[in-house]
Design brief:
single chain, 280 residues, alpha/beta, Rossmann fold, 2 domains, seven-stranded mixed sheet, three-stranded antiparallel sheet, 19% strand, globular, binds S-adenosylmethionine
């Protein structure tokens, strides 16, 4: 199948434009969709043009939604050792998790902020292209068995590297456990704290008027080509306060022009000046 031509058809018949995702990954994902759904190319084209529910499911299958509670557990003590003083010095601060998937990273961050006594002062936003990921993030309901291991891994890291003296967290403060249905359900005060919206980093400008102290965009841009990555970095740069910072995934890094607009400090990319780019 000519997948570039297919992406053009998808773009013409839906709000989604994957034409600037990296070729290899989008090709693999599309081939998988075709095989899993046992579709001919003609059937795929037909459904893409006529079936909006199919297109929504397709978006989920094309994008990679993998996430975990306290993903990359070593990140969190380093992140807060660098940023705590700055955040503590503010009356309120804004954090955006862009490409938040089902929200496990968002809830992880809110738990740490609460332990630090900072959750009240934080405004937390989460966005994702996928409507079903947005629903999951709002529901705050995750798999118990899978995340039990993640929480244990984080507890080990915390014991070795406490965050501002915090070396242990009582997770029953944050989740109800439904072992029968293998569910971990976030308490209301966490679910109500986060403003979750559907937003496509490809199509749209920032969905927010406010500026941010921190933008998490981890393990998302790795699927975009260089031109699209630049467009998104530009938007994040514009949306950050001076000295605001961006956090990428462990296998992602800035290259070229944007290396001069952010200063790398451990896992953080700190906005170096207030120069404003025109978003195109
Ligand atoms: C691998 S997950 C990363 C989740 C989380 N940030 C983490 O690191 O655990 C990538 C997420 O990016 C979302 N995504 C992909 N393309 C996007 C786009 N154009 N706009 C917004 N979100 C997008 C996917 O739906 C998916 O939920």
């Amino acid at each position: 199948m000519d997948f570039k031509r297919y992406l053009q058809v998808l773009k013409e018949h839906s709000p989604y434009d994957f034409s600037n995702y990296s070729d290899n990954s989008i090709k693999r994902r599309l081939q998988k969709v075709i095989a899993d759904n046992d579709l001919s190319v003609d059937e795929l084209l037909q459904k893409t043009q006529n079936d909006t529910c199919f297109v929504e499911r397709l978006v989920e299958e094309i994008t990679v939604n993998t996430t975990e509670l306290f993903r990359d557990p070593e990140l969190w003590p380093v992140f807060y050792s660098q940023l705590l003083t700055q955040l503590k010095g503010k009356k309120t601060f804004n954090i955006w998790h862009a490409g938040s998937s089902s929200g496990m990273e968002v809830y992880s961050n809110m738990i740490i902020l609460n332990e630090l006594g900072l959750l009240e002062r934080a405004r937390i936003y989460a966005t994702d292209i996928s409507s079903s990921m947005v629903r999951q993030c709002k529901s705050g309901s995750f798999r118990y068995q899978f995340n039990k291991g993640q929480i244990e891994a984080f507890e080990k890291v915390l014991k070795k590297n406490p965050i501002n003296g915090i070396s242990k967290i009582d997770f029953t403060k944050y989740f109800d456990v439904d072992k029968v249905n293998d569910k971990l359900i976030a308490k209301d005060f966490l679910r109500e704290k986060v403003d979750v919206r559907q937003h496509d980093l490809v199509q749209e400008k920032s969905p927010f008027y406010n500026k941010f102290d921190v933008i998490f965009c981890r393990n998302v841009l790795i699927y975009f080509n260089a031109a699209l990555q630049s467009k998104v970095y530009q938007m994040f740069h514009n949306q950050l306060f001076p000295k605001g910072c961006m956090i990428l995934g462990n296998h992602e890094s800035l290259t070229g022009f944007f290396k001069t607009k952010f200063k790398k400090s451990g896992p953080l990319y700190v906005k170096t000046n207030a120069f404003h780019f025109k978003y195109q």
